[in-house]
UniProtKB/TrEMBL annotation:
<dbReference type="Pfam" id="PF20695">
    <property type="entry name" value="UbiD_N"/>
</dbReference>
<dbReference type="GO" id="GO:0046281">
    <property type="term" value="P:cinnamic acid catabolic process"/>
</dbReference>
<dbReference type="InterPro" id="IPR049383">
    <property type="entry name" value="UbiD-like_N"/>
</dbReference>
<feature type="domain" description="3-octaprenyl-4-hydroxybenzoate carboxy-lyase-like Rift-related">
    <location>
        <begin position="90"/>
        <end position="286"/>
    </location>
</feature>
<dbReference type="GO" id="GO:0005737">
    <property type="term" value="C:cytoplasm"/>
</dbReference>
<feature type="domain" description="3-octaprenyl-4-hydroxybenzoate carboxy-lyase-like C-terminal">
    <location>
        <begin position="293"/>
        <end position="404"/>
    </location>
</feature>
<dbReference type="InterPro" id="IPR048304">
    <property type="entry name" value="UbiD_Rift_dom"/>
</dbReference>
<dbReference type="GO" id="GO:0016831">
    <property type="term" value="F:carboxy-lyase activity"/>
</dbReference>
<dbReference type="Pfam" id="PF01977">
    <property type="entry name" value="UbiD"/>
</dbReference>
<dbReference type="InterPro" id="IPR002830">
    <property type="entry name" value="UbiD"/>
</dbReference>
<feature type="domain" description="3-octaprenyl-4-hydroxybenzoate carboxy-lyase-like N-terminal">
    <location>
        <begin position="23"/>
        <end position="80"/>
    </location>
</feature>
<protein>
    <submittedName>
        <fullName>UbiD-domain-containing protein</fullName>
    </submittedName>
</protein>
<dbReference type="InterPro" id="IPR049381">
    <property type="entry name" value="UbiD-like_C"/>
</dbReference>
<dbReference type="Pfam" id="PF20696">
    <property type="entry name" value="UbiD_C"/>
</dbReference>
<dbReference type="GO" id="GO:0033494">
    <property type="term" value="P:ferulate metabolic process"/>
</dbReference>
Amino acid sequence: MATTTTTPHEDTQPPAASFRRFIQDLHAENDIIIIDTEVDSDLELAAITRKVYETEDKAPLFTNLKGHHQPTGLFRVLGAPTPIPPIEVPTGPVKQFTLHGDAIDLTALPIPSLHGSDGGKFLQTFGMYIVQSPDGKWTNWSITRSMLHGPCTLVIPRQDIGTIQRMWQDRGLECPFALCFGVPPAPIMVSGKPLPAGVEESGYNGALLGRRVEVTRCETNGLLVPANAEIVFEGVISNTEVAMEGPMAEYPGLVFPGECKKCPVQRIEAMTYRQDPILPVCVTGRAPEESETVWGLTQAAEVLGVCQAAGLPVTMVWNPFESHCLWFVVQVDRGRLREPKTTMEEFSVLVGHTVFGSKPGYYIPVVYLVGDEIDPTNLRDVIWANATRCQPRDSEFFFDQYPTG
């Protein structure tokens, strides 16, 4: 099991704090399968992974990709308070090997083709981007796709990364970034959480783990990355160079063939990695996959916090996997709901303004309100309640488009 060898320090960490410890736990629970047979990274790998999603089978770890003799891998994450800041360490497993400049050739890496309709190969589908505002006050950890463009370039859509990039651009500087693969499960979960702009994801990671996340400094910039990551790419986002990005089959399980747009080019300047690095990949399509188990789950958690902070009698929020991150099911405490003596319309409008005005609510068009006798995680319960209790027109309320939260 050479591809999942841990360091002595990692052996003492919980699975949520180490990608390889997590994989070892999958081994211990017989929830992973090693595929040593040669597999083609051009669609075959993706097809096998999609089959696993749809049959709820064991997570595949590929070790023999056609045309690539170095061990590689893929793993599927299955649903793995007061912020605790990370702690900087001088080095870590991710610093075992280093490449700079012309020694880097992304086209030589086993980057799989995921869908026949995609506009290119997407290196980044389940890694974590790190960027920081020029004043150092906001460090953003996020999951954003990026497409292979050239031997040392990627193309990336704008999100929170674009907000921070513009801060650098306003100063006449290019925005440094780090793209990290195989980070611990806790950081990847928090990276998918739609936190408000300016909030530090790194502190949330520590809170989730109950301990400080170990980070180490990049080779070419001052960014701090998880010390036990598998692979880290370092570089800058160009202020002037753009290229066409997309299309890509995304989380709704659909692809829009004409959906291409010009996006910033990223130049890779350095690459660090550990022995036998593992490249995590998400193959989007029909649920469930990581869009639902990571992004959808953390969206629901953020909306729960938003509702409770607003004083609403909300006890649970769920994002059904089958809805492809397009529904929220909000459970309401009926006892507390009676106290303000509001009408159904007044309460529904209040919840709608609260949810749709939040950052995660921007992406989700439908909210179902259910009583505390309905389990939001049980889709049969939700459909039954909707079919028998929701009256067309009288029980439905519509809202205008909200700006991004």
